[in-house]
Amino acid sequence: MTWLIVGGLLVLAFAPILWLMPTKRDRQLVRLRERARREGLVVEVASVPKRGARAEELVGSDGVARDVTQPCCAYRLPASGSWRGAPRWFLLRDAHGSVPIPGWTVHPEVPLPCVDAVYWRAVIGAATGLEDQCLGMEASEGMASWYWSENSRGREAAELVAEIAQRLRAIAVLQAGFEVSRSPDA
Asked: How far apart are CA 23 and CA 57, in angstroms?
């Protein structure tokens, strides 16, 4: 009986320590974020408007409309130079969307810039192949961002983050090239 009491006390003593141990998901996120930092990306907790929200999520029981957002992480690539004059946009992944490109829609708070179809085809090229990993993409003055839930879906973390960094670099080149090609001195 004494051994049962001692065993029970030991379990009670060490249970909080085991509770603090990182889970498999925690270790995966650490690997993803460390790799992102090595790729030159900044990782931030963010949220995007939830696409395809159910009716009960959009309106509360009091009849007031809710602002429904989805928590995610933003992997951001800071600009190496100035992108003044480059368009600012924020696209959200939406299987039913078609503006400005199929499978995407515009963030409700960021107006769609007036740019030609060639520009948007280049943006499509930056996202092609990783659409299922992406909740949103953004280009603003000074950084390109990739919003996602950090679910690698069985893919190797290093490989996936390298692909995201490559896509963000393609957007950065597009933004920098936009400024050069449309500047008054060119």
From this structure: 30
